[in-house]
Write a structure and sequence with these properties.
This protein is an alpha/beta fold. It has 3 helices and 3 strands, in the order βαβαβα. The longest helix has 16 residues.
Length: about 90
């Protein structure tokens, strides 16, 4: 069943290695499988560089702030809920 979305605010992130990037990729994969929206916000420059170098920058939707990311999630079209089987 499709769900709304997830905002990951990374504005306080001071370090991110390959494991951290792997977790972001896993979240992206899961959000796509669940037909939901994943938005990253507050990306620090070091992570921006890492995502660009690895070619992952374009895979993620990124907003400057968590507030902007929440607006993106709220504006995303949501399919109608499936009726409960009776």
């Amino acid at each position: 069943m499709p769900s709304g979305g997830l905002v990951v605010d990374l504005s306080g992130l001071t370090f991110c290695d390959s494991r951290g990037v792997g977790v972001l990729v896993l979240l992206l994969r899961q959000s796509r499988e669940q037909q939901s929206t994943l938005v990253l916000s507050g990306i620090p420059p070091h992570l921006e560089r890492t995502l660009t170098i690895t070619g992952l920058r374009t895979a993620f939707q990124i907003e400057a702030s968590a507030e902007e990311a929440i607006q993106v999630i709220q504006a995303a079209p949501h399919p109608p809920a499936e009726p409960d089987p009776a």
